[in-house]
Amino acid sequence: MITLTKEIQQAIKDSQEEPVRLVDPETNVEYVVVPVETFELMRKGIYYDDSPLTEEERRHLLIQAGLRAGWDDPEMGVYNDMGPRRDDA
What we know:
Elements: H1 6-14, E1 20-23, E2 30-33, H2 36-43, H3 55-68, H4 78-81
Antiparallel strand pairs: 1-2
């Protein structure tokens, strides 16, 4: 285990509970320092869930996308009055 330098300790104190980013000056690779409790939660999947979306989650995302696209605009109400599109016409 590596002991933190005074500089990194100060960066952690100044971070206000946010992860601290470090950069390796030789490779420019960035690293993130987080408390071990946070790391363990991340490792167990508490912060990240890659399971398939539920029907409710899908519906919520579709509604949000529609709202961002302007489908709640009152002028779009004309589409509610239109009959269904028929491909055989």
